[in-house]
């Protein structure tokens, strides 16, 4: 939508994503991303951590099941989404405001790790991953046939 605040956050998951279901059976996964800035202190000749930002995030539907089945505590992730502000009253009746990230895309950061991607089965609520499609070329698009032509 126009005018929404879209951000990208790089950080580590503070816990495993928590998968829950609404009363209507809609899956939602909630998790926190900790993003800590680092700067190099030339005088001390070392890296120094800044103050961490802890950002609550959520994903819905099959996306929630994919996140809960793929990501775990401590993983470095790259997440893009929209900031949402929500007001509520706490148990003591105090008005509170929370800012959360409604995630559009998320994945593991490959700066310090590797990942094996498996396409998930579509529809039906079955969260078991589909078998990977074999390919002669590691960069090939599954199911695509280009003959002798290069796809780019």
Short description:
The chain has 1 helix and 8 strands, in the order ββββββαββ.
Write the layout of secondary structure elements.
Layout: E1 6-13, E2 18-21, E3 27-35, E4 38-41, E5 46-49, E6 53-60, H1 61-70, E7 76-89, E8 95-108
Parallel strand pairs: 6-8
Antiparallel strand pairs: 1-3, 1-7, 2-3, 3-6, 4-5, 7-8
Describe this structure in words.
With 152 residues, this protein is mainly beta. It has a domain at 6-108: OB fold (Dihydrolipoamide Acetyltransferase, E2P) (Beta Barrel), CATH 2.40.50.140. The protein has 1 helix and 8 strands. It is globular, with a radius of gyration of 20 Å. The two termini are 31 Å apart. 13% of the residues are buried. Residues 126-135 and 137-146 have low confidence and may be disordered.
